[in-house]
Specification:
By secondary structure, the chain is α/β, with parallel strands linked by helices. Helices cover 43% and strands 16% of the residues. It has an eight-stranded parallel beta sheet with strand order 1-2-3-4-5-6-7-8. β6 (142-145), α6 (154-160) and β7 (163-166) form a beta-alpha-beta unit. The longest helix is centred in the middle third of the chain and has 17 residues, at 99-115. The relative contact order is 0.15. Bound molecules: zinc ion (ZN).
Length: 243
């Protein structure tokens, strides 16, 4: 399995990261894409990827972060040949529409496109707007991470050729279950969003994507092994992972 969206540089993993990574490996997680949200966070993410061979870095400025870091983050993206994606970027309209977020999102999309890198997109209460921007900018390598938009948008997501990464909350969330069932299997990816989005109690960790694998396989009426092979193939192809 491949966890395409986690934040292993988070303070919550400082004390026992090695144990968490070992648990992931023992559970069958072959690679983890570590997503960053700010400049400092990106530096930590890059450092982790140099220390652990199964961690791959994605760099980006999160919509709720301080916009003054944008130039530094763009520069870091341009000068970091090891990154496999730009993320996590996107729009978060939970507390209302913030137009400045659009500019930050667009700038990072532009650079990703120029560099031929995939983007990992966060959208909260902004699904429709995110799709509009991605479509207008003709983005093709797109992962919608933990997409919370209406499942009515699925036909459009499919038409645009985007990937959807399903979080562990699929074990409980009806919307995620529908998303995991409606998307074509060659556009499905697994993610934990560690340390958050744990449908059980406490801190989330990459090993938990085994729960999603089993839940999605059951929903789709296929074997977990088959789904694992397919989602691994999807991630390896999209992020050009050398594993
Ligand atoms: Zn995240």
């Amino acid at each position: 399995m491949i966890d395409v969206h986690a934040h292993m540089q988070s303070a919550e993993f400082k004390a026992d990261l090695k144990t968490v990574l070992l648990r992931a490996k023992t559970t069958g997680v072959r690679a983890i894409i570590c997503n960053s949200t700010s400049f400092d966070d990106s530096i930590e993410c890059l450092e982790l990827s140099r220390t652990f061979s199964d961690i791959f870095p994605a760099i980006g400025l999160y919509p709720a972060e301080d916009a003054s870091q944008l130039e530094a983050v763009l520069n870091l993206i341009e000068t970091s040949p090891d990154i496999v994606a730009v993320g996590e970027i996107g729009l978060d309209y939970r507390y209302g529409k913030d137009l400045a977020q659009i500019e930050i999102f667009r700038k990072q999309l532009e650079l990703a496109k120029e560099m031929g890198l995939p983007v990992i997109v966060h959208s909260r209460s902004a699904g429709k707007y995110v799709l509009e921007i991605l479509e207008a900018m003709e983005m093709d390598k797109v992962v919608l991470h933990s997409f919370d938009g209406s499942v009515k948008l699925v036909p459009r997501i499919i038409e645009l050729g985007f990937y959807v990464s399903i979080p562990v909350t699929v074990v409980k969330s009806k919307q995620k279950q529908e998303l995991a069932t409606l998307m074509p299997v060659d556009k499905l990816l697994l993610e934990s969003d560690s340390p958050v989005l744990n449908p059980f109690d406490g801190r989330n960790e990459p090993a938990n994507i085994l729960h999603s694998l089993k839940a999605i396989a059951e929903l789709r009426g296929i074997g977990p092994k088959e789904l694992e092979t397919q989602t691994d193939r999807n991630a390896i192809k999209l992020f050009e992972l050398r594993i």
